[in-house]
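Let us begin with a simple case.
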Amino acid sequence: MSTTTTTARRTARRAAALASAAVLSLVAPVAVQASPAAADPLPYDTAALEAAMAAAVEEEHVAVVGEVRGERGRWSGADGVRDLASSEPALARDRFRSASTTKMLVAVLALNAQERGLWRLDTTVDDVAPGLLGEHGDVTVRELLSHTSGLPEYLGPLLVAESGDDYSTERFLEVVGEPREPEQLIAYGAGAPWTPRGEFVYSNTGFVVVGELLQRVTGQRLDDLLRSWVLGPAGMWRTSLPDDPRLPGDALTEYATMYGERVDLSAFDPTMFGAAGGLVTTTEDLNRFQRALGSGRLLGAGSVRLMREVVSTEPPAYGLGSYRLPDPCEPGSYLHGHNGASYGTWTVSYASADGQRAVTLAVTGRDLDTLTPDLSAFNALVGEALAQTCAGEPVQPGARSAAPVAPVHDLVDRAPLPPRR
């Protein structure tokens, strides 16, 4: 069963709509219990999904794309426009920057390297790259993947240092448009005050380090490694880890609101995020990743268990490059995945343990002027989509909703610019 819905909204009001996404929050579903499955799964309520997508765009996003896979088959849809200049409608198969969902794939690479005998999770940074973290070379791969190494975030220090006294939008675009080497990002993070080792503190720098270690231990570029170990086996033919700012013609343009102005982020250089969040992908491909991981095509069962074994129990709990959320279809079970936030796109990708039920959604347009925007419509879309992965109706009809959970640091863990002087 497959239904594809694409709804274009071309009015000037829609064309002017921009993001309302929190810089420090993650959307996650309210746990709901599903009724016993009927003999035949219910069809998708496409009207409800379409309405939820339209509401997300009304919430001042530019475009929304999504794919839902579950007991009822497959549904994909889109709303809004791919690009504000052309008003070309967004399509469900459009590519986008998925930011921190990249961490799931990098964690798979790290665990695959352990399965191949190239290292162990307890391998230290100095074992592979002596001196990369200075006096903190005893930090392990496991600690980096679980955000418990104490290694600080690099984004804030980099942006503050390179903006100097120029806090203009133009200077910001210049800074994020510069090509970067992993060592440069790592140096900005490692030079900041470290947090206590063993404490969960979300840090993108850790995954940049893991990416650099993987390149050294395998002798391969990270993008090549990703293609051979993950993208190929999972059938993710439209996913890449580019080092070029130019997006494909079928990609959603990123936008942000800064100082009250709408900003086109096409000049953004993905090496600014690197192994922590440089992925360009589609909703279909991320769901393919979830199925491949859950079915054992990417890792052995023991490695998957390690990836999902939580080290932080604060909701949503975190393992190795993977969040854990309550499963709305199977009480007592969990969904696994990751969220992502680039400067102009929000992404959510979660799946059941076996990967057969999966939801991936992405919205473009973010308001970087505020830390607490209203995300209720996007939350509702996430909840509606997750509820519809179940074979039957939720016990409580009103439970098709989602609510914000405790703040979670994501790729963009703070407003990117200091206040204008």
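The second case is a distinct protein. As before, the sequence precedes its structure tokens.
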Amino acid sequence: MNKKAVVFGATGLIGEYLVQELIKNPEYSSVVLFVRKETSFTNSKTTQIIVDFENLPAHKNEFADADVYCCLGTTIANVNHDKEAFKKVDLYYPLQIAQLAKENSANQFIVISSMGADANSKFFYNRVKGELEAKLKTLQLNSLQILHPSLLLGSRKEFRFGERISQIISPLFTPLLTGQYKKYRPIYANDVAKAMIKIALQNKKGINIHSSEDLRLIAN
């Protein structure tokens, strides 16, 4: 095949695995990475575009007929507890990307959200993710794939204290999560990446939401 992927968040935990899987996948002949600084990815398939989100529209032609993958995300601690800075990365940027995807005839938009996303949540993180999903749904994208992974397992370049503690203790409680609670089981980031690609290759139209357990089953 001659498919094109456009990736945002290529240096994050899921994003890195995603790029590796896209490079290996014969369905994709071109993988365009929008990054803030050059990465270590070097492959005949990959093109790196160093970009500031203020001038992102200048690269709108890259979106045409592409599968647009959005893995952007940060933590409130990483932005010094600045809620607006957090929303810029987790809400405003993904919305801007999705709007460009729509305006420039992208094939589909695949985005990492979160289990518990709810625009009315008491928790800031979940509320922002819920706001993002609500606004994405109003864009009437050709194909919108929203992923709800649970706690992510994998090795990050950056240290996230809460996530690291959860990863350490997760082997103790994971066996207890059965039946209706299976969806809360931690999931490996590389499984999320594999599932993203398999979902994209299904070319489902409309709005589709994928739970963490769905992602695990799709990946394997």
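The longest strand covers residues 28-35. The chain has a mean pLDDT of 89.
Keep these points in mind for the review questions at the end of the chapter.
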